[in-house]
Amino acid sequence: MNQKLLDMNEIVDALIQPNREQDQQHRIEFHINPLPPAFGDLEMIKSVWNNLIENAIKFSGKKDLAKISIGAEKNETEIIYYIKDNGAGFDMNYAEKLFTVFQRLHFREDFEGTGIGLATVQKIITRHGGRIWAEGKVGEGAAFYFTLIKRKESE
User: Fold this and answer.
1) CA–CA distance from 109 to each of 30, 98, 100, 114 (Å)?
2) How big, in percent rounded to 5, are the helix, strand and coil portions of the chain?
3) Does residue 74 lie in a domain region?
4) Which of 24, 27, 63, 145 has its CA 20 to 30 A from that of 4?
5) 59 CB contacts (<8 Å, ≥6 apart)?
6) What is the reported pLDDT for 116?
7) Whether pLDDT at 7 is above 90
8) pLDDT digits (tens, 9 = 90+) for 131-141
9) Residues near 1 by Cβ (< 8 Å), separated by ≥ 6?
10) 111 in a domain, yes or no?
């Protein structure tokens, strides 16, 4: 891994911009709060954000207006990033299956995908020393959280 200080705002903006340009009917509303920088491997963290953003768009695609919020909170040891949507959501009884390879909580006919994205995201976050989890409610949306360790630039 090639870890360096990453500008999370820049990463997220670059990933969202093509979606904004393609959204001719203004069916996706993004709310992006300022994101603190974090240490990580640029390509890996871009992959995490890309997967989470694509999932939020995909699973809220059947809404008249998809609402996606991205932000972060800090505590003493870590930065907690989140992405929330108002999409299909999921049953919390099956939340542990979200991060298992080839496990799906929705029918293939309803939502495309291979079922490996979130397993890959979890592997990347774990490799960075962080955690990932999700909360959801069927028909009301989902929220995905991941942490990265807080470090000073000199570390």
Assistant:
1) 26, 18, 20, 12
2) 35, 30, 35
3) yes
4) 145
5) 85, 87, 88, 89, 106, 111, 142
6) 62
7) yes
8) 999 888 888 89
9) 40, 41, 44, 127, 128
10) yes
Q: Say which CATH number the domain at 113 has.
A: 3.30.565.10
Domain holding 36, by residue range, is: 3-149
* Token couple for 107: 């029918």
Split into its structural domains, the chain has a count of: 1
The answer as to whether 11 is a domain residue is: yes
Whether the per-residue pLDDT at 19 is higher than 90: the answer is no
Half-sphere exposure in the Cβ direction for 51 (13 Å, CA): 23
User: What pLDDT, on a 0 to 100 scale, did the predictor assign at position 24?
Assistant: 67
Structure tokens of 84? 């929330």
**Within a domain: 15:** yes
How does DSSP classify residue 98? G
How confident is the model over 114-130, as a mean pLDDT? 83
- pLDDT for position 5: 93
